[in-house]
Structures are given as structure tokens and as C-alpha cells.
Amino acid sequence: MDLRIAATDRAPQAIGPYSQAIIAGDLVFCAGQVALDPAGNVIDGDVQVQTRRALDNLRAVLESAGSDLAHVTKTTVFLTDFGDFAAMNEVYAEAFGAHRPARSTVGVASLPRGRRVEIECIAVKR
Asked: Among the residues of the chain, which ranges form H helices?
């Protein structure tokens, strides 16, 4: 199977030895996104602000790969504080609307750049 890298300047560049996304056939595997702007600057704010930015970044990466949030099949959400679950979930639900991808939510000790939430996903191409 041919693997292709998807990348966009509308989301932060990878801060390590990985790609923003890999396309494998009709599947798009997106790396986790946190609250950084496209230039890599930290976006401060509560978990809702950070979730919104992470989802905006995912949206941009998905679009560069020929997909979108409506074609996401699975997400994984990482939270540093499970007390943020309900607030994160509100923004997440707004972003996905009636679409309900499968999801896992995992509590972690820390995330890159001191962020409170990270979201990764798998999608199919449009």
C-alpha cells in the first residue's frame, strides 16, 4: 500500500519526528493536535478554548488530506484533568454536530507544551 504524507501550513508543524497526517488508501491517520496556532505559538485559555483550537487544527489537517470532520471514524481525546471532561465534551459536540465518531478519552499526566487536551483521529477520505 502506498503511504502519503498530508501537511498544511494552516495547522502547527510537527514538533517531532512525525507527520501531521498519513494517508493510507482511503484512510487518513491524523497526529494528535493541541492548542497551538499554525505558527506553533501556545494558545492559552480554559479547556474549551484549547479544545476548539485542537479541533480547528485537526480540521485543517483533514482538509489537506481530502477529508473533514464529517468523515472522522474514530477519535482519541487525551485530558490532563478529567474534571475538564464535560467542558471539553461541549465543544467537541458542537464541532461534530450530529456526527458521532467512535471515541476513547484517556487521562494522562501531561501533554506537549503544557496543554490540557490533545485530540487525534482516523478518518476516511471524502
From this structure: 47-64, 85-96
Strands 27-33 and 21-24, by their bridges, are antiparallel
Chain centre to alpha carbon of residue 10: 13
Q: What mean pLDDT do residues 105-117 have? A: 97
Can you give the pLDDT at residue 15?
Answer: 83
Closest CA to 31 of 125, 122, 92: 122
Least Cα distance to 108 among 85, 82, 75 occurs for: 82
| Domains in the chain with CATH codes | 3-124 (3.30.1330.40)
Give me the mean pLDDT over the 72-94 stretch. 98
Q: What is the pTM of this model?
A: 0.97
Burial of 10 (0-12, 13-18, 19+ CB in 10 A): middle
Other Cβ atoms closer than 10 A to 106: 10
* Rounded Cα gap, residues 8 and 71, in angstroms: 18
DSSP one-letter string for 13-42 = PPSSSS-SEEEETTEEEEEEE-SB-TTS-B
